[in-house]
Amino acid sequence: MDWMNRVKDRVISAEEAVTHIRSNQRIFLSGNVSVPKKLLSALVEYAPDNLENVEIMQALTVGGSDYVAPNMEGHLRVNSIFISSNIREAVHEGRADFTPVMLSEFPLLFKEGILPLDVALIHVSPPDEHGFCSFGVEVGLTKTPAESAKLIIAEVNEQMPRTLGDSFIHVNRLDYLVPSNYPLPEHAMSESGPSEITEKIAGYCADLIPDGATMQLGIGAIPDAVLKFLYNKKNLGIHTELFSDGVIDLVEEGIITNSEKTLHPGKILAGFIIGTQKLYDWVNDNPLIELHPTEYVNDPFVVAKNEKMVAINSAIEVDLTGQICADSIGPKLYSGVGGQLDFIYGASRSEGGVPMIALPSKAKEFSRIVPMLKPGAGVVTTRNHVRYVITEYGVADLYGKTIRQRARSLINIAHPEFRDSLKKQAKELNYI
Predict the structure, then answer these.
(1) How crowded is residue 172: how many other Cβ atoms within 10 Å of its Cβ?
(2) Catalytic residue among 138, 241, 290, 317
(3) Which of 20, 71, 177, 420 is at a distance of 20 to 30 A from 133, taking alpha carbons?
(4) What share of the chain is helix, strand, coil (3-state, %, to 5)?
């Protein structure tokens, strides 16, 4: 930890660092697997007796829920653009807030002063010989908010990988530095491996991916499973919001070469990384990989510059006109828009692009292809943007199709036990 000697006047404990946060301030919290655990733990201890009405802005966080516990009410209040499992109960009970916004626009809320930030709590690698810290595995949603805050408090973790790209902040920009040394949380995309249904869906998705494609892989078991079906492809590339362990083998087997990418050729481009320690070790100082701010990575007009752009995303339900609900179950908020529309629209504007929505045909005893979305359901991808919808029963190509054609195509890939009732309700709605 020789770096501490260079900035020793700003090196403090987490407990001391959080005393610089004041009541009624808005703070930014670095997320995904890059939550600054020491700082957040210290804040949870400090807040009940010392702070009131502090707003915590964040996206998805992996970790505990102490900071949204009932005893934090009145002291800390989370405002998230994505409802991860650890804060879902607090949102449903009205103890935390949700702000709908596309991922590509989230950092701009702070940069443009729409939501001014008083403090940023971030998580970085130690500074290199030139004084630059890397934001590590979470660049996309953190770099711009951090640089927009009046005060930056950085947890400097000896075990944070040093990722390349537009991923650095100079140590002179950091107001306080809190040393730490612990492994990042590991978060496998699919804990139990793909199911038979997931593999069928992934196989159909893979069939639509041409050689030389550039791919975006959303969060979840299906996008992760698609990677296992790509070993017969050639010269694939990656331009994605995030990636996980599944890309490593494809790179080492020479399937992902990035050689035919029309934007950032030769590079895997992403905003953040979630996976296991194997992945964190692999990305460390790896010149193949570049992480960039999400307002660039997810910008649909940037995405569209990649020819043969493939976007693979999922959904909670799809109605017979092609409307995609991916953020709520009826009016009950569940997740968020994420980068789905960013990449679906970007891929649809790409030359030879392939935008896909992939989902199982049913959940428990309910069809996920429905005549109409549940009352209060959020439309993430509109019927005007949707192209391919995929279940384990096949592919529905909705682009340029009438409502009648769409309804018939979607009924054909619905689970067989629901097809008759879907036909009946489609007739009642005058869709067919």
Answers:
(1) 11
(2) 241
(3) 20
(4) 30, 25, 45
Active site residue 241: yes
Q: What is the CA radius of gyration of the chain?
A: 22
Q: Are 188 and 275 in contact (CB under 8 A)?
A: yes
Beta-carbon contacts of residue 265 (< 8 Å; ≥ 6 apart): 237, 258, 259
Taking the CB of residue 285, how many other CB atoms lie within 10 A of it?
12
Domains and CATH numbers, the chain: 3-180 (3.40.1080.10), 196-428 (3.40.1080.20)
- Residue 127 tokens read as 């500074």
Q: How far apart are CA 388 and CA 398, in angstroms?
A: 6
The CA distance from 214 to 355, in Å, is 12
Angle between helices 403-412 and 416-428 (to 10 degrees): 160
pLDDT tens, residue order, the chain (432 aa):
678 888 889 999 999 999 999 999 999 999 999 999 999 999 999 999 999 999 999 999 999 999 999 999 999 999 999 999 999 999 999 999 999 999 999 999 999 999 999 999 999 999 999 999 999 999 999 999 999 999 999 999 999 999 999 999 999 999 999 999 999 999 876 665 679 999 999 999 999 999 999 999 867 788 889 999 999 999 999 999 999 999 999 999 999 999 999 999 999 999 999 999 999 999 999 999 999 999 999 999 999 999 999 999 999 999 999 999 999 999 999 999 999 999 999 999 999 999 999 999 999 999 999 999 999 999 999 999 999 999 999 999 999 999 999 999 999 999 999 999 999 999 999 999
With beta carbons less than 8 A apart as the criterion, state whether 321 and 398 touch. Answer: no
C-alpha count within 13 angstroms, C-beta hemisphere, residue 267 = 20
Two tokens, residue 223: 């996008």
Do the Cβ atoms of 12 and 152 come closer than 8 Å? Answer: no
Written as one letter, the residue type at 395 is V
Calpha distance 298→302 (Å, rounded): 7
- How many other C-beta atoms lie within 10 A of the C-beta of residue 87? 23
